[in-house]
Amino acid sequence: MTVNGSMFVKVPSRSQADVVVVGGGLSGSLAAVLLGRAGYRVAFVDRHAVCPAQFRVEKIAGVQVELLRRMGLLDCLAAAGAPFVKVVNARRGRVLDETFGQHYGILYDDMVRVVREQLPPAVRFLVDRVVQIETGPDHQQVTLAGGEVISARLVVLATGMGDLLRQDLGISRRVIFEKHSTTFGFSISPAPGQAFGFPSLTYYGEQQADAIDYLTLFPVGDVMRANLFTYRDYRDPWLQDMRRDPKSTLLATLPGLGRFLGDFQVVTPVQYWIMDLCVAGDYERDGVVLIGDVFQTSCPAAGTGVSRLLTDVERLCMVHLPRWLASPGMGREKVSEFYQDPAKQAADRSALRAAHYRRGVTVDPGMGWTLRRQHAFIRRRLLGRVKDLQRALPAPSAGQAEA
């Protein structure tokens, strides 16, 4: 630019960090918090100062609860979520069984907001966009759209399913199953003066031809959130019917569902999400590591995506990275240790197996899958009846217990 007839060149500002975390969704936010708490200098970069509302994970349950507890982040997320313990499982208008465990219903953007609120002072949160990453065996250079250049030991790429930076680094992506599943999300409320007769409900598809794995209903705030997992072809007109008139479409496809819901209304627009199953390739690079969906995507119906993500964050930030930063260099031989981590590999394999199983047991017409499907529901119904009988029996007296 020219000032008073003289030419000036804007010099980019430069800064130093131990780690640059690129991407401010759940995986990136978790990584930034854990690394900042450990005392590392972290530059945390995302385009959004506030995570925009988007349809992603909306529930914490199972192994995710323990993983978050080990990270020291369960309490803050639990306080912001809607807790529930009992889940009624049903199909074709009948209860299969009831399962129990600690669950928390919480929308994705609220989850990210709560995690970001835990960012310690050691983390610089930069609302900006990364335009270039230059990697090497010792130091990495990250250039932001705003002009700042950050030098760091390691770059953690947590950009979800975004492709541009991954492609610029020469990291490929292999599509295992294109348009593997379609997931719908919306909220419902009972008719005025009524209430749902369950704390949470999982209702399974009634016919193999419907290509519905299950509908899960759980509390979020003052409404009941609905997640519907399907394997319908993305060109099927049913998907448009589901978006346009979800109540009628659901009840027509799952006629036994009305017994559990009674009269209800859909109180939010229907969101949907078509998932490709993908895995990264050529990812062992100097100075950069991939976590979460940028490394591998998961089937939403299998419920393994968040477990994989949390495993990635825990193993990288609490096991590998402290050891890496304690010695010079950040070559691919170090970074490869994360990808070869047995816990990470087990979580990745389990997610892929679960994705193929959920689709197969839901839509595959072959005899083997048909038998698996029938056996699974019959077994659950029988075990559910046994548990009901056990709960109905009177507790033994003190004398009987001693005998």
TrEMBL record:
Highest taxon above the source species: Bacteria
SUPFAM superfamilies from the UniProt entry: FAD/NAD(P)-binding domain
MF (Gene Ontology): FAD binding; monooxygenase activity
Keyword field contains Oxidoreductase: yes
Record's keyword terms, sorted: Monooxygenase, Oxidoreductase
Gene3D superfamilies the record matches: FAD/NAD(P)-binding domain (3.50.50.60)
Every FAD-binding domain range: 17-316
Entry annotated with the keyword Oxidoreductase: yes
The protein's name: FAD-dependent monooxygenase
Species this chain originates from: Phenylobacterium hankyongense
